[in-house]
User: Fold this.
Amino acid sequence: MTKYKFILSGGGTGGHIYPAIAIANELKLHFPDAEFLFVGAKDKMEMQKVPQAGYEIKGLWIAGLQRKLTLQNLMFPLKLASSLLESKRIIKKFKPNVVIGTGGFASGPLLQAAGSAGIPTVVQEQNSFPGITNKLLSKKANAICVAYQNLERFFPKEKIVLTGNPVRQDLIDIESKRDEAIAFYGLDSNKKTLLVLGGSLGARRINQLIEKELQNFLSQDVQVIWQCGKLYFEEYKKYNQPNVKVVDFIERMDFVYAASDVIISRAGASSVSELCIVGKPVIFIPSPNVAEDHQTKNAQAIVDEKGAILLKESELDNQFSIVFEALLKDSGKQKQLSDNIKKLAKPRATQDIVAEIVKLIK
Assistant:
């Protein structure tokens, strides 16, 4: 029996790392004796998260281009050349059957080196608006697994496969966990629960909004699970009380989703994909500080299908309390948003991506 080998690269943020780990885990179910190697960027979070998931990882000396002239930018050509050379060495030594990239700085040189060596490559694009790296890699890639319709503008049409983004499988059936989740957080099952997701590091503008609106929520008999993020926990933990649970990081995402009735969230690709499966009414507040404003585009793709509400950071002061109160009082609107976002869910995304990888090695 052939012993298959796979190299995966995804990093910089959880949105790139966790899809890569999910794909590796699914591949392992198909090929229990396969060998896996991850390639990331030195000093980025993948260097910790991947070994924690049980996989070996090698780091490249690579970083992204800054938007202004910096020493980092002047070093970029040197870092890119070094990373391409190291990627070639890794590929030559490991001899993978397929190389899979889920985004992040390291996936560029790695997939470029793999394509040049004639090794099949798969690009997994999470966003509705791809970054420049994946646009370049798509020319040589064998398959491009996407989560949104209408990406023919950016990628060769014949290579695109609509799979969705890999998500945690424990989110598939959260309704059965509601009572357990409410008890876990010590909440009142008779009250509505607002879940606030600002990401693992936190979102300053969302935290400022929740601080300002907190009394308003409580006066409407709404209890809050508030993920303020690691960077802001010390500042906001003082608001912890029986009806307000302030946390920096969430281990059991299935529980917070199960406990919630309405969700406020950023619109990173992984979050959007999870929220489609969870199927709760969502108010997206996209981060304006990301490349190509892709979070707004991700959220807009859901709003266009009448599956969510979108508020820009610039609209929060004037619009938020009106929009939130109207949604809270309108059970019909809540159901409409819930039903429509669920229609966009792709719960088999990981299996479908792996099916494309398997085609390349059979």
In short: The longest helix spans residues 71-94.
